[in-house]
Amino acid sequence: MRRLASNESEKAIEDFQSAATYPENFEAAAPLGGGQNAKIFYLTGLAFEKAGDADNARLAYERSVDPPNAPKTLGTEPTYYRVLALRKLDRKDEAEKLTADFAKVVAERSSKTPTVDEFSKFGEEGPIAEQNAATYFLQGLIARLQGEQEQAEKAFDVAAKLNRNLIWAPIMRDSKLE
Questions:
Q1: What is the pLDDT of residues 80-94, one digit of tens each?
Q2: Which residues are within 8 A (CB) of 119 and not within 5 positions of it... i.e. 6 or more apart?
């Protein structure tokens, strides 16, 4: 991310392309949900764009919209990058619809009162504070998509306070990825 921000496009491209590879020595398949592919391909597209390579940027954005091995789950961070990629590809109607659907899913999630579950730390969702932090983080992403930067910054700040291990909250608060 630093290389992208400091206009070291070629090095940023190398970094992002490396991030998109799955090590063979893991002796396991890549994550079923596609992992961070939508984010990686979008950031790769930005790096190609900054390097002046419009063709490869377009290809990276297309891969971000439809990353390999990734389901189209709406209430997750990859949706944010899919929307940004759709905008870069000038597919504004699709981007608007996906933003609205994303916002609806996250609003439904945030309206539910979490129940106290003493075994939650062992599950996929994590403890309640982590769940709330993740929801605030997603609300911040949606606010950014809707052009509400001040609201996004507040949501990212709350997310970071609730879960200091959510390292992307302060990064997203200060980054300009659109």
A1: 999 999 999 999 999
A2: none
Q: Higher model confidence: residue 175 or residue 138?
A: 138
Rounded Cα–Cα distance for residues 75 and 61 (Å): 20
**Amino acid making up residue 144:** R
In this prediction, what percent of the chain has a pLDDT beyond 90?
52
Rg (CA), the chain: 17
Q: In angstroms, rounded to a whole number, what is the distance separating the alpha carbons of residues 100 and 4? A: 29
Answer whether 102's CB lies under 8 Å from 80's CB: yes
Distance of CA 27 to the CA centre of its chain: 26
Find the length of the chain. Answer: 178
Quick check: 118 pLDDT over 60? no
| Cα–Cα dist 51/15, whole Å | 14
Reduced 3-state DSSP string for 142-172: HHHHCCCHHHHHHHHHHHHHHCCCCCHHHHH
Angle formed at CA 80 by CA 21 and CA 115, multiple of 5 degrees: 105
What is the spatial distance between Cα 5 and Cα 134, in angstroms, rounded to a whole number?
25
CA distance to 114, 121, 122, 127, per residue, from 117 (Å): 9, 8, 10, 8
Single pTM value for the model: 0.83
